[in-house]
Amino acid sequence: MSRQDTEDFGVGNLSEKSRMLPSLPPYDMDDQLLPRERRSTWCCLAWTLLVATMNLLVFLMNLLLMFVIFTIVLLPTIVVVYFGFQCHSQVLHSAAHYCKSFLDDNSSSALIILGFVIMSPLIVVAMAIYCSLARRLRLFLCFQPYSRAVYKGVKWCWYEEGGLCSCARGWNTQVKAWV
């Protein structure tokens, strides 16, 4: 910018002190980025173990939820492939009544192929259900950053948002995702 352009904006009238401040300070004391007090070594270690344990529990809960959803959604594929492999003469060749009377090698092969063909769309459906549920319950906001262990006075995310994993707040029904 030329000198004429800066004079049009009134930059020439600012003092040296006002040029050092890039913006106005926040009014709320919680929003200010003041240097925080570090914890002692043992306290930091204890808080690190607490934060790591909480994050591990949240990870395991997410993993369990994903396992349950995928198991329920992929149950038809699991059943079809199981019966296909059980009744095929080259794999298990079960002596069960339904294998002898209903399923021969050709129909067992057809069940195996059908099971693997319907697996792809069901995986997409299961992932969409899990992502929708995780977004609605805000499960990924339950993970806590390491700075909770290092510095004193850092609030927990679930405390700021109104409950554990922000579930206490009303659900936002305006957000929609198309899969």
From TrEMBL:
Q: Name one GO molecular function term.
A: PDZ domain binding
Q: Which chain positions lie within coiled-coil regions?
A: none
| Record localization | Membrane
Transmembrane feature ranges: 63-85, 110-131
The lineage's top-level taxon is Eukaryota
Could you list this entry's UniProt keywords, alphabetically sorted. Answer: Membrane, Transmembrane, Transmembrane helix
Can you list the GO cellular component terms from the UniProt entry?
plasma membrane
Q: How does it sit in the membrane?
A: Multi-pass membrane protein
Family listed:
Belongs to the TMEM88 family.
From the Swiss-Prot or TrEMBL record, give the protein name: Transmembrane protein 88B
Query: From what organism does this protein derive?
Result: Amazona collaria (yellow-billed parrot)
Q: What is the lineage of its organism?
A: Eukaryota, Metazoa, Chordata, Craniata, Vertebrata
